[in-house]
Amino acid sequence: MRIRTAGVIAAAGLLMLGVAACGGSGEPAATPSKDKGNGKLVLWTDPTRAPVLKPFAEAFGKENGVTVEVKEISENQQQTFITASQQGSGPDIMVGAHDWIGNMVQNGAIDPVQLTAEQKAAFHPNAIKAVTFNGQIYGAPYAMENVALIRNTDLVPTAPATIEDLIKTGKDLKAAKKVQEILCVPFGAAGDVYHTYPLFSAAGGSLFGTTASGDPDPSKVTVNTPESIAALEKMKALGEKGEGAIKTSIGNENGIPSFVQKKCAFLISGPWSMNDVKKAGFGYDISAVPGFAAGGQAKPFLGVQAFYVASKGKSKVLAQEFVANYVTNKDVAMALYKADPRPAALTAAADAVKSLDPNAEKFVQAGANGIPMPAIPAMGAIWGPMANAEVAVVKGGDAKTAAEAATKAITAEINK
Amino acid sequence: MTTEVTGAGSARSPHPGPSGQAPDQRSRGGRRGGAEQVRRTRELSTGFIVSRIAVLGVVAALLIYALPPLIQTEAWTALGVVGVVTALVAYLYLTPRHIPAKYLVPGTIFLFAFAIVPIVLTFVTAFTNFGDGHRGTKEEAVRAIETSSVTQVPGSPEYYLTIAERDGELVFLLVDPDTKAVQAGTADGLSPLTGAEVSLTGKVLSAAGYTVIPTAQAAERDAEIAAFSVPTPGGAVKATGLSRAFEGKADKSYDAACDCVTSPSGGRWVADEVEGYFVDAEGKHLDQGWKVDVGFANFTKALTDPTISGHFLNVLIWNFVFALSAVATTFALGMIVALALHSPRVRGTKFYRIILILPYAMPGFAMLLIWRDMFNTDFGLISKLFGVHDWLGTPTTARLGLIVINLWMGFPYMFLVITGALQAVPRELTDAARIDGASAWAGFRRVTLPLVLVALTPLLISSFGFNFNNFNNIKLVTNGGPYAIDNSTVGATDLLISYTYRVAGFDSGVADFGFAAAISVFIFAIVATVSTVAFWRSRAQEEVYS
Q: Inter-chain contact A6–B170, Cβ cutoff 8 Å?
């Protein structure tokens, strides 16, 4: 029944008056708000990470004499966070993927985090690049992930050098009745831009041009450039009417299981598939997704998990302390890695655990050419139309028509 | 009207009310005579007292719960509404008058809270650009723009911070990491500090004239510290957490004189109250916008934008086909099964009924995903049974598939309600038809079916309304697809609701609630019209058969 949400915002905004005073006007800060901090830190994350983060949050609370609450958000974390923030009931710290940044910034939901030069240098450069938006760092990265080529070494001892090699090996194995599919790449009836992006980019395709500062430029959609159309042609050749390596019948729900059941010798997936793959009981290895014989390298999307400081949190200084000075600590990063083995964003931590888990390092290597997934809000407009275009070509449709339809839908969505 | 509610069992009430309240109640009711007094004793039974205390307790609790946030956020309108409603409920249940209202008011409040208010809010939202990038007020956008543009002053040190106090005022004790020089930062500016004891980690342990605040206490003064800044010639020193500080400067600032945002490097973004953005000379806008009223723009866009209106009719037709066939097929199958099990010759009906209810009892989400996988071209059960075909990949089979899935999920419900309705059809009527020489089919068609329909029409109409907006089925099975190669916006199985979901950007995580609300208003109008007409006709039908 609350009709005026504006009031909520006004009250929460009181906390931010001081920052506005940074405007160089030289005025003393606005009268300190009477609303004392509550000595409590609230952190939101998804259900997989919540149990992992809890001990760290509690240790931080003990050190600083505050209580810390870690809350699981099971669905739709980004929208839940933005809506709750807007109403003044959000957390102080949010944990999530870096590609949310653009949308969270345009909604005024997160604050920049000031990292020292030394702190920045301690991270993998790609991780820092991923959390940088409009020249500002918006979160402390802690884990990185990207897809790689995972292969069954019992069937394929050496990694294929090119996609053509991969297809040939897959076809031979299929002819010898050792596997049922050439390649398991999650695609599904609805398409999957993320998992197939290494193939699309290896063939020369791209989504956005870049601005002068090197950021993706939403005003330059490059889905229907000749290079991208040529890349879609290559996907068509790999598709159902061609080699049959990309199929709408293999999706997220059955991609990893099919590989584990030895229905295919190759899988394109990320660190999240390792638990299943390890249990499969056959030899496996991880390498970068190869490029085409006559073409560039495959560039998978890099995803970074980061800690964000909520603009409308009630304990912003504490949140800054936690994000900028606590989770950027090497020992904390190591412990976080041990609790949740995803490649650590802090180089020192990644190096320290290299010997413990060679897989993590292999994924990092496979992502060396990767590009951080664009964090601009316009990226949201890409997924649907681009997936539809890929489904169309994989089913044998004309690449140019599909690319143009997708571009039309994407630009309409961006300019709406 | 109160006098008419005297219960027959009133005198037998086992629990007279507490003596403290009874005389008061009696004295008020007393002028109405003896019978009235008897009724009062009945109403003051323990159950009566407890239930009333419970109702008033819950209402009071809700009020107390709602008060602090509403006051804090200065939401006076909402506070007024909550207060008036609470007072009204308290008044109603504390006086013996207005008996019908006692029964009607709770339902009315719920009707308002859960039906009318959301509809009104949807209508209101449809006239705004509320959505991602336009969620808050202009002041909020300005604040976000300024906050986001704060960067470190080039060449300035990144200080170690110790929070201290002097004469009750907050002071930042700042240690330069390179020179170890200590400065005290107050609201007036920086001043050098000598003789401070500094630890190896750069924390100031003690300084003459200042009281160092322990971390735990500093943490409790969070808001104060967040609001505090030390002005410097180049900008201001702000805390980064409790142990570090940096000298920052906002690159963008709002200038009320020109209603624009300016940057020292010459950037200038003027407020555009129509779009709700700060726009520069080239027409590019800053990321953060604010909510503005857009009049009928959302409605106009839905009707005139070719990328949207061009597909509206096709989607609408399929939407009607889907909703009507969903109702027709589930009703037909439900009826056949109900009739079969209604026959006295069938044994083991309980067993069959349990089996038949199963699809209804299963969680819909899981079942829809299982159905989707059964339609999988290479691995699905349906492909294995009926031959490999891209079942969900061609428009006709995808649409048929959805109707089949809906039939499986929906018929148990129809079966249940028809079974109930059949019990109510007097057996004499069907027997009479049989004796008059009608065939089983004629008897069903002319006697049973019309009688069942009279009872079920409202349910069929609501089933139509539900299936018209059956988002889950579409979203989870086909996600609107298959899409034509030259059209990425609308798929062959999109219903208006799933189409709206996509066009309004919910799929992509950048939502436009204003536009979604406008289309919801259209959907509301369509479903309301269809339902009204159907109810109108069913009333005429009732007059014929009853």
A: no
